């Protein structure tokens, strides 16, 4: 089973939010700590500049003079800052009280370009220092004395309070980010749940559809726009399902009716015959009647079985090339005498060299059923006309008979199971509205199709069967 | 008793009509809905055996028209549709009974007899008039301890008179309820059959059972 939409959405929201919040927190942290460090360095550099202004040189030497009050931060007793001055030759010039015990590390960049770096103060504290290489200002006498000696100054300061501030910022950021993330995920979960509520509603509606009542539909009006196409498709599916079930039920009812009626006839006839002693003729009449009923029932049962075989695709086909003229002649032979008696004329054209690739048994059944149907419904002294042609892919056969009393609109129903154009034919025996339905299913099984049209009291069935050979072999392009 | 059978499947129609005739009913039978409707609305049937799926006019329409015209005929629906909804629909439209195909002929006859009795408010299948006893289920007639052998037509006539015991029954009534539509005889035949019936059921030194009321008809009853 794949992950549910809800879990997927939650995972995505959680992942995206975590990454976003982390990036945001890191950026804020970096910016804040950089700005704090810059402020710290500025103060450090200002101290260094103050000290550097206290270094002077005269014609003979460089000297340092500074009043304690000018820079009290170096002389306080608790966690004082410290500085140290070196001459060019590395000789120690001066230093704050803290460097008296242990000196600072000497470092500097180019002249007048301060260099900052973290250091450890002589008393062991973590700190930050600036190294400055500068030329001490000269008094009036020493102005022209050359060479000019450069002085290195390193000022260091403990970073405990800076680290504490940065640490606090880090914690604050972590807590705010974390709690906001949790809150956002909670809201996200609620949003996902609410957002997916229509799906739950849909699932409940589908679950409520019962097999015996498929009339339920999902109202699309109450659904969000994204789900409207799904709901529409679902409703369409339900509609088709309902239609199929309705047809199946109607079919079962029709089949039951079609079998119960002759069964009732059989039973009644036998019961009446056996209720009193009768003459031989009476019995003979009853037996003949029963035989007719049994033949009728056998026809119905066999047709139903064949229909069910075709519909479930259980028919094994052995396609072979079949001559269409031969098929027609075989089908017409048993009907010819009776048709001639009724003055029906029979005419064929276009059947020469017409071959289709079909299962012989099934195609013979189709043609026989169509011809029998035509012969049955043609008016006395009517006409049956059969025409064939090869369209390349298929062999098209039209069977037209006169004397059709159906309306043009009836043509679409003639292949429905148990549909009868003329209900009074029910009693005639073999016609129970299955023949053409069977033809249609059988033609489809063979890979062909069948259609019907009614015009000017003529009923025309068009049967298309797979052609034996493609057109190009029969009629090469010139 | 006169019965109309409207059933489009010939084997059932023929067998039911034959069975009913042999059971002493006067039977008209048709396989066409339109014709069935005409028969049902132009004659006074005691019972109509009606198939639902008919060509032309279907059974329920015939039933509807019968009831709309106020015809009292008892209707037995005969159909292959066995869904509860079909049965309920038929009974709601005014049918009196329902029989699903295939059925036993015995049952059909029994139901038709029951409906016929109901048409005359007779519940007991055994009618006794004085020492005359008519068993309508077995179609046997007894005078005292002696069984009387009657032909189907004579029995039908006696049964009809017995159903309307004490009433004056006109020749036309008898004609309409005992003879079929296609019957070739004329109404004089009623008098002839009354004569046959009298010969068989009346006994010397016993009270007369069938009285003739001149110009009005006949009456069956144990009168002095």
Notable traits:
heterodimer; A: 478 residues; alpha+beta; Beta-Lactamase; Helix Hairpins; Heat Shock Protein 90; 3 domains; 5-stranded antiparallel β-sheet; 15 strands; 47% helix; rod-shaped; disordered C terminus; B: 224 residues; alpha/beta; Rossmann fold; Arc Repressor Mutant, subunit A; 5-stranded parallel β-sheet; 4-stranded antiparallel β-sheet; 8 helices; 41% helix; elongated
Structure description:
- The complex is a heterodimer of chains A (478) and B (224).
- Chain A has 478 residues and is of the alpha+beta class.
- Chain A is 47% helix and 18% strand.
- Chain A folds into 3 domains: 5-166, Beta-Lactamase (2-Layer Sandwich); 225-311, Signal transduction histidine kinase, dimerisation/phosphotransfer (DHp) domain (Helix Hairpins), CATH 1.10.287.130; 319-474, Heat Shock Protein 90 (2-Layer Sandwich).
- Chain A has helices at 5-53, 160-195, 197-207, 228-275, 280-311, 324-341, 360-377, 435-445, 471-474, and strands spanning 55-57, 62-64, 82-86, 92-95, 115-120, 126-134, 137-138, 151-158, 319-323, 345-349, 355-359, 383-390, 394-402, 449-455, 458-466.
- Chain A is rod-shaped and about 165 Å long.
- Chain B is α/β, with parallel strands linked by helices and 224 residues long.
- In chain B, the strands form 3 sheets. A 5-stranded parallel beta sheet of chain B has the order 2-1-3-4-5, sandwiched between helices. In chain B, strands 6-7-8-9 form a 4-stranded antiparallel beta sheet, covered by helices on one side. Chain B has a two-stranded antiparallel sheet with strand order 10-11.
- In chain B, α2 packs parallel to α3 (59-68) and α6 (152-163) packs across α8 (188-201).
- The longest helix of chain B has 15 residues, at 105-119.
- The model of chain B has no long low-confidence stretch (mean pLDDT 85).
- Classes of the chains: A alpha+beta (478), B alpha/beta (224).
- At the A-B interface, α4 and α5 of A face α1 and α5 of B.
């Amino acid at each position: 089973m794949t992950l549910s939409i809800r879990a997927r959405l939650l995972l995505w929201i959680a992942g995206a939010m975590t990454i976003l919040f982390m990036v945001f927190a890191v950026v804020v942290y970096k910016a804040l700590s950089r700005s704090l460090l810059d402020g710290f360095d500025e103060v450090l550099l200002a101290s260094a500049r103050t000290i550097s202004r206290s270094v002077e040189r005269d014609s003979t030497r460089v000297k340092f003079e500074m009043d304690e009050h000018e820079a009290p931060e170096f002389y306080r007793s608790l966690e004082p800052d410290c500085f140290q001055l070196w001459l060019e030759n590395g000789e120690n010039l001066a230093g704050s009280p803290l460097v008296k015990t242990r000196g600072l590390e000497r470092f500097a960049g180019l002249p007048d370009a301060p260099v900052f770096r973290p250091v450890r103060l002589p008393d062991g504290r973590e700190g930050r220092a600036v190294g400055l290489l500068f030329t001490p200002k000269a008094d009036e006498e020493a102005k022209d004395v050359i060479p000019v000696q450069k002085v290195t100054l390193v000022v260091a300061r403990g970073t405990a309070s800076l680290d504490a501030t940065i640490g606090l910022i880090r914690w604050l950021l972590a807590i705010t980010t974390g709690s906001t993330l949790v809150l956002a995920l909670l809201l996200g979960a609620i949003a996902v749940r609410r957002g997916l509520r229509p799906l739950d509603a849909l699932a409940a509606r589908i679950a409520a559809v019962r097999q015996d009542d498929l009339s339920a539909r999902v109202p699309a009006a109450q659904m969000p726009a994204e789900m409207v196409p799904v709901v529409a498709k679902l409703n369409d599916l339900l509609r088709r399902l309902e239609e199929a079930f309705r047809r199946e039920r109607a079919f079962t009812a029709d089949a039951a009716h079609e079998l119960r009626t002759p069964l009732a006839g059989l039973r009644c006839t036998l019961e009446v015959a056996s209720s009193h002693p009768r003459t031989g003729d009476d019995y003979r009449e009853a037996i003949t009647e029963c035989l007719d009923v049994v033949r009728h029932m056998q026809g119905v049962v066999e047709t139903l079985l064949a229909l069910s075989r075709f519909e479930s695709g259980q028919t094994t086909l052995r396609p072979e090339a079949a001559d269409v003229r031969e098929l027609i002649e075989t089908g017409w032979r048993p009907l010819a005498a009776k048709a001639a008696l009724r003055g029906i004329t029979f005419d064929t054209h276009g059947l020469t060299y017409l071959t289709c690739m079909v299962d012989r048994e099934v195609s013979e059944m189709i043609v026989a059923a169509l011809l029998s149907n035509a012969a049955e419904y043609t008016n006395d002294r009517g006409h049956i006309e059969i025409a064939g042609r090869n369209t390349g892919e298929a062999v098209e056969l039209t069977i037209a008979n006169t004397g059709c009393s159906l309306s043009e609109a009836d043509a679409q129903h003639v292949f429905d199971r148990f549909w009868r154009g003329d209900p009074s034919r029910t009693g005639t025996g073999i016609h129970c509205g299955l023949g053409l339905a069977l033809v249609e299913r059988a033609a489809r099984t063979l890979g062909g199709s069948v259609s019907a049209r009614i015009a000017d009291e003529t009923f025309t069935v068009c049967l298309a069967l797979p052609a034996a050979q493609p057109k190009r072999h029969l009629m090469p392009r010139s | 008793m006169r019965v109309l059978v409207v059933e489009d499947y010939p084997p059932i129609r023929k067998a039911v009509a034959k069975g009913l005739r042999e059971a002493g009913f006067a039977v008209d039978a048709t396989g066409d809905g339109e014709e069935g409707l005409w028969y049902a609305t132009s004659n006074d049937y005691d019972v109509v055996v009606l198939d639902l799926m008919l060509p032309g006019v279907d059974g329920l329409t015939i039933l509807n028209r019968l009831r709309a015209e106020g015809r009292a005929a008892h209707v037995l629906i005969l159909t292959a549709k066995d869904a509860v909804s079909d049965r309920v629909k038929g009974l709601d439209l005014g049918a009196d009974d329902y029989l699903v195909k295939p059925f036993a002929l015995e049952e059909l006859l029994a139901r038709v007899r029951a409906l016929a009795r109901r048409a005359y408010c007779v519940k007991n299948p055994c009618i006794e008039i004085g020492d005359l006893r008519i068993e309508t289920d077995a179609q046997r007639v007894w005078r005292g301890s002696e069984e009387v052998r009657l032909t189907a037509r004579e029995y039908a006539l006696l049964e009809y008179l017995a159903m309307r015991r004490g009433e004056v029954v006109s020749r036309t009534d008898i004609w309409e309820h005992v003879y079929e539509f296609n019957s070739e005889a004329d109404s004089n035949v009623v008098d002839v059959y009354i004569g046959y019936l009298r010969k068989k059921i009346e006994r010397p030194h016993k009270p007369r059972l069938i009285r003739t009321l001149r110009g009005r008809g006949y009456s069956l009853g144990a009168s002095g």
